[in-house]
Amino acid sequence: MSPSTPAPHIPVMLEECLEWLNLQPKQWYIDATFGAGGHTKAMLEAGVKVLAIDQDPHTQAYMARLKQDLADNKRADFLSVQGNFEDLVQHVNQAGLGAVAGILMDLGVSSMQLDEGERGFAFRKDGPLDMRMQASGDSAADVVNHYEQEDLAAIIFKYGEERYSRRIARAIVEERAREEITTTQALAAIIQRAYPKGSYRRDHPARRTFQALRIYVNDELGVLERALKGAESVLAEQGRLVVMSYHSLEDRIVKHFMRSSEFLTGLTKKPLLASEAEAERNPRARSAKLRVAERSVR
Ligand SMILES: C[S@@+](CC[C@H](N)C(=O)[O-])C[C@H]1O[C@@H](n2cnc3c(N)ncnc32)[C@H](O)[C@@H]1O
Fold first, then answer.
1. How many structural domains is the chain composed of?
2. Given a cut of 80, is residue 249 above it in pLDDT?
3. Measured from the CA of 244, which atom of ligand 1 is nearest?
């Protein structure tokens, strides 16, 4: 990927995010999931300052490009770091910011990440089976080739909510005894064969298993919980936390956190969804759920 790659990520529910962040000119906000920077750019244009975070090293080129495109007198309004949003507090401290006026989290993978076969996130593109957002820890290939069948099934069930998790795990274990599974296409084909005929959902049979492996390999749910706690602690009074998630496991964590926090008041009883027009234009927006909370007491 480079900043000149065509069709980068289209920001989802952009207007809604800006509105719910309740942008206050010249105040600091955090975009914890910079991606291609669509939300950050619009926030800067609205006159606020942004600290952008993304753990994917590939987003640095987009960060540099955005900085370059800003007018000289605006450059100090944009800070960026490559890092995990679970270390939000540390990033805010290192940037020398005090409490911030709002935080945006647009979870999951960007369309650039899905488009890059070599990163191994996508079942439709061939590439090595990796899926790590950072270069350490077990890769998806490690999990698939070395975990016990029962553990594999549990991961696929828990993080993919896949009803055929046991069949899939069995097929993986049988297949890997013949040959190591090293590519996304090999895994996708195994899952497709394991799936009972006629029970295909709207989406590809491998979608849920790929989601499960990605969540597991990156400990995405644990990271999200820690990030939400960090976000709560760096928000100024009346600061807004705006979170967009794309599957029910994440949405459940966000909902529960916003409801149970003693320092946050939920502003969205039900999650906000993208308009039909946006969902039509951008299929990624179809599964987006946006929740907002406000920091009450400090
Ligand atoms: C859906 S994309 C964000 C798209 C962005 N809002 C835009 O408009 O271009 C999600 C981004 O979050 C990043 N991300 C996911 N988990 C993260 C984490 N734990 N820490 C930091 N960044 C993370 C991914 O690398 C990806 O670039």
1. 2
2. yes
3. 1
